[in-house]
Design brief:
This protein has five helices and eleven strands. By secondary structure, it is α/β, with parallel strands linked by helices. It has a single domain, classed as Metal-dependent hydrolases (TIM Barrel, Alpha-Beta Barrel), CATH 3.20.20. Bound molecules: zinc ion. Zinc ion binds next to loops.
Length: 201
C-alpha cells in the first residue's frame, strides 16, 4: 500500500508558491506519504524539474499529471505528460485520458471551478472526494456523488504553498509504480485520508 497526494501545484502554476525543491524536500521528509502527483494548471512544464530532483531518492515517486481548465470546470488528468488536444472541453479531456490509459478526475466538483452536477454526465474515471482546500461540506457532497456514480474517490491537497503539501492523501493498494497506481485507482483499490481517520469507498 502506498500513500499519495494526487493534486499539487508548483511554481509552474501562476498561483502557486511551491517550488519543485519544496515539493521534493517535504516528500523526502514525510513519514508516510511518498508519492506525489504534479498537477499544474494547464501546464506540464513542472513535471521534468520535479522528476529530476526526485531521481536520487529511491523511496519516493512522482506521478505526472495536469489540471485542465475547461469552461465547465477543472479536470485532473493523472499520468499525462502531454497536454490534451484543444479545444479543451469535458468530453475532449476525458476522451484523451481514456485513449492514453490515464485517469481523469473531477477536481473539487462542488467548489468554484468544479464541474458540479455536470460530473454526472462527464464519464470521468474518478471523483476528488477529499480536496485539501475545499470546505467539509463541499467534500461531503463529492463523497455522495462518488457513491451515487459508483466511482472511486481520490484525495489531493490542491496545495499552492509548501505548508499545504500532503495535508490529505489517497491510500492505494499498489506498489511504487505509476502504471500500477493508475490501474489501482480505476479499480477503486483506494481509500482517502486526512490525519488518522480513514474513509473507504
Ligand atoms: Zn488545483
Amino acid at each position: 500500500m502506498i500513500r499519495a497526494d494526487l493534486h499539487i501545484h508548483t511554481t509552474f502554476s501562476d498561483d502557486s508558491k511551491t517550488t519543485p525543491k519544496d515539493l521534493i524536500e517535504k516528500l523526502v521528509a514525510h513519514p508516510s506519504v511518498k508519492v506525489a502527483a504534479v498537477t499544474d494548471h494547464d501546464s506540464i512544464k513542472g513535471i521534468d524539474p520535479v522528476r529530476r530532483l526526485a531521481k536520487p531518492y529511491s523511496d519516493i515517486l512522482i506521478i505526472p499529471g495536469v489540471e485542465i481548465s475547461t469552461p465547465e470546470g477543472d479536470i485532473l488528468v493523472l499520468g499525462a505528460e502531454e497536454l490534451p488536444p484543444k479545444p479543451w472541453t469535458v468530453q475532449t479531456v476525458v476522451d484523451f485520458a481514456k485513449d492514453h490509459s490515464y485517469v481523469s478526475v473531477a477536481a473539487h466538483p462542488f467548489r468554484e471551478w468544479g464541474l458540479g452536477e455536470l460530473t454526472m454526465t462527464s464519464n470521468v474515471d474518478a471523483i476528488e472526494v477529499l480536496n485539501g482546500s475545499s470546505s467539509a461540506q463541499a467534500n461531503k457532497q463529492a463523497v455522495e456523488l462518488a457513491k451515487t456514480m459508483k466511482l472511486p474517490g481520490v484525495a489531493g491537497s490542491d496545495s499552492h504553498q509548501p505548508s499545504e503539501l500532503y495535508s490529505v492523501y489517497t491510500e492505494i493498494q499498489a506498489s511504487m509504480d505509476v502504471d500500477e497506481i493508475l490501474r489501482a485507482i480505476k479499480k477503486g483499490l483506494i481509500a482517502v485520508s486526512q490525519t488518522e481517520k480513514s474513509i473507504r469507498f
